[in-house]
Amino acid sequence: MGLLKIIKYFKEKKERIEKLESINYAVSIPNELSPIALNFPLHTQPKVSIIIPFFNQENYTWACLKSIFENLPEVSFEIILVDDHSPDAYDFSLVNNITILKNSSNLGFLRSCNKSISQAKGEYIYLLNNDTIVLKGFLDELVSVFNNFDNVGAVGSMLINADNSLQEAGSVIMKNEKIEQIVTNKKTFYPEINYIYKVDYCSGCSLLFKKNDDRGGINYFDEQFAPAYFEETDLCFRLKYEQGKDTYYTPFSKLIHFNGVSYHQMKDNTPTEKDKLFERNLSLFKQKWQTQLDAIQSKTVQERVLELNNDNNIFFYNNELPHFDKNSGDLRLTEIIKAYKRQGFNVFYVVRNNLIDNPYNEYFQRLGVCVYYEHLPLKDFKQFYKRVSVKKSIAWFYAGYVFYKQYGSVREMFDKCFMVYDMVDIHHLRFKRTLENSPNDKFYKRSYDKFLKYERISAEKADLVIPISEDEKSYMEKFVHSKDYLVISNIHYVKIQELEAPSFASRKDILFIGSKHHPNIDAVYFLVNEILPFVWKKIPDLKLNIIGNVKDEINDIINDKVNFLGFVPDVKDQFLNNRLMVAPIRFGAGVKGKIGQAFEYFLPVVSSTIGAEGMKLTDYKNALIEDDAQLFAEKIIQLYTDENLWNVLKNNSEESLYPFSIDHLQNQLEKINMKAKASFKK
């Protein structure tokens, strides 16, 4: 990168960061009362009961209700206002379809919540302070965590101050009962607080939990903590240590919290009395949970975040986030990331020049992956490592060129690091095979030399090498001897029940799927120019449907029997409506995900030898396999017209996927984890 390009890059980066710094939620303190008619929907069986205790401060309660109305949840809900014996008059008569409970005496926050929980109709309880302004998705995003994560006990939101600074991103408890909110040295857009992660507890000013535990008992606050302080901390500990359920924080639920307004207005609570109440309840909390508190070893906030997943850490390194919806290699990596999340790892994904508005960020953040992106004008990469404070980790490099260029700097970031080189496929082998067809092509010769260098050095330097097939493992062993290899292939599992697969007679046409890699481009030309002319003589109305951005590289095929569909967000219908998949790949490397993807939907396949490489397929049992153009065409005709043969292959689809199952993947990752732990002890 030349000097002018460097200057331009940092100038543009500075502008991007300034834009992030200027994020404004445009919320002001509601000093004036502004009642308007609010007609909330009426749900006789609400999913969630929103409980809002208040004591005076009618203006704040109105502002809170209006923000809910302006950001109505998709999930069904009821609203319960709890008047904790406010001496000031109030009037919510313009608000329809809410319930107002009036305490005959001042009960305080905790007992007001318990009273309303007992009368709530919802499966979930959502506690919401009246001194809040909720933002779009505030409630649906909390419910989403329950729907998408296992053993969830409670979920809390990102809390933002009125000046747009971060107030809280969950809270943790450290060694010696030190309690801290996750906020220090962090801004609302920093990567390490913009994904879903476990915490010890979240503030009760925005907290979702189930009304009943698994045995049918009601999840009340413990009234020894009345009137307030440590009630939500105690609840989250009970959920974890008595019910085996975790508390999560999600940044996708956001609200503005005018911190402490509701409690500051409570009767007879001077600062001195509040301090005494805090200390009293802290002492009660320690007495109740001393065994669990003594087990905590973390001395810092970030150490505790890591400790909640047993300090099992993995960093993935790549040049981009996985485009799981566009190519099989990235889909494989996505499944590996999901598997590590299921194993309870803290998962980080690092792309050096990633931007905050990358559309793929959110998908992984919602899985619970901390995705790095630029967020400071200078030194944001090193500062990110410093803030997340990971001392030991597996480092997983996706492809040889990534390992070759980054392994040195990455090793410096950790005290202990287990370096994994994921080959994806052998890139230099792909170029070698291309050269067999184009021996004088200088580009492919340079590419072959370059990637051979990357992949040999990466294999030598790595602690573990991951080939995608036994074939590629054997090939690499010729270059790098006495190396630790562990095969992880593509990951496939059936996406429908076999009975859901449409019949032979209800389908028509054939399917090809591929990205704009050269082997796919060549396959399309081979198919259209050399194979299908034989097929069309026998089946003149047959059409070829092509999915994927291979279309971007082909503009000279004009044929009304060839449909370029481009990127298709959901390929299911194509796999269910076409009669068979074709994969006439003549060169390349690795295991071809398109064939496994066809098996996921019980779609029979005709493939070349290289297309079927690494999948251990048997001709006429799992697929039809042929390399010659005319013979390939004859097998298309045979499979397209022979229902009995078609059903044999369809019925064997699930068996064909056994070596690529999630269970097998989990077993392979466990082996990696054991190797990593052993290396950390050295």
Automatic annotation (TrEMBL):
It holds the Pfam family Glycos_transf_2. Residues 49-182 form the Glycosyltransferase 2-like domain. Coiled coil: none annotated. InterPro entries: Glyco_trans_2-like, Nucleotide-diphossugar_trans. It comes from the Bacteria. This is Glycosyltransferase 2-like domain-containing protein. It comes from Kaistella jeonii.
